[in-house]
Structure formats: structure tokens, C-alpha cells
Write a structure and sequence with these properties.
alpha+beta, 2 domains, two-stranded parallel sheet, 135 residues
Length: 135
């Protein structure tokens, strides 16, 4: 659920959100052809929210956003103060890239001496989960 307690003035006297106030489930929308320009449309909505006084925080997005070019989506939303949260396909887990002495593991940069069991931790977990479901 989406709620900005400070912006919507629904705090109780102790500063916690009022559970009786129904959260705003949709704060913005941009209409376009399905799958067309998700990054462009997402940034349009986030800019409107920012102009409306909403503070950035965690930002969940599906794979349409995650598959956008970094300069089209990930870099602008991070510059706005958001912390993107995505899932990865099975073939995107583990080490994703290497540059200038660092490695990219599932969306975060790490030291190149990161132990392989940590680099592959999610891959191993997925494998164990699949084996558990099959047996």
C-alpha cells in the first residue's frame, strides 16, 4: 500500500500513521501503449509526485523498468533520491558485470575479491528451492 503520512497529514499524536485513514493506492498514472516507454512514463509520474511534495523512498518496479537503459531509468530515479527495488530473472543472478576493479552482483557494486559463494548465493538458494519443490 502507498501512503505518505507526512504529506497526507494522517499522523496520530505519537507520530505514527493513522490506521483508519485509507491509503492512497494510486498517486499518479501515465497512459501509453502497453510496454511502450515505461521509463519515460515512470519519470513523468515521479516528477509530478516530487512537484506535489512527496518525498522519495523505495521504488518497486517490474522488469520493464529494470530492462530499460540505466541512463533512461535507474540513474534518473537514483538522482531523484529513490532507491529502486527489482527482481531478476534466473539468468541475471550472480555476477552481472565487471569494471575498473569492481564487480556488479545483482545490481550492486562489490570488491572483486568477494568470495564466489557470496557472488552465487541467490543462484544457490534458487537451486535449493527448486530441488525442494521437485522432491
Amino acid at each position: 500500500m502507498t501512503r505518505d503520512a507526512e504529506h497526507d497529514a494522517v499522523l496520530l499524536h505519537d507520530g505514527t500513521p493513522n490506521p483508519e485513514v485509507f491509503p492512497a493506492l494510486f498517486l499518479g498514472v501515465a497512459l501509453d501503449k502497453p510496454g511502450q516507454r515505461p521509463a519515460y512514463n515512470g519519470l513523468k509520474v515521479l516528477n509530478r509526485l516530487r512537484k506535489g511534495g512527496y518525498k522519495p523512498g523505495y521504488l518497486a518496479g517490474d522488469r520493464a523498468y529494470n530492462n530499460s537503459e540505466p541512463e533512461d531509468w535507474q540513474l534518473p530515479v537514483r538522482a531523484m533520491g529513490y532507491k529502486p527495488v527489482y527482481d531478476y530473472r534466473a539468468d541475471q543472478l550472480g555476477r552481472q558485470a565487471r569494471t575498473e576493479g569492481t564487480i556488479l552482483v545483482e545490481g550492486r557494486w562489490y570488491c572483486p575479491s568477494m568470495p564466489e559463494p557470496l557472488v552465487n548465493a541467490t543462484i544457490d538458494l534458487e537451486r535449493i528451492d527448486q530441488e525442494t519443490w521437485i522432491s
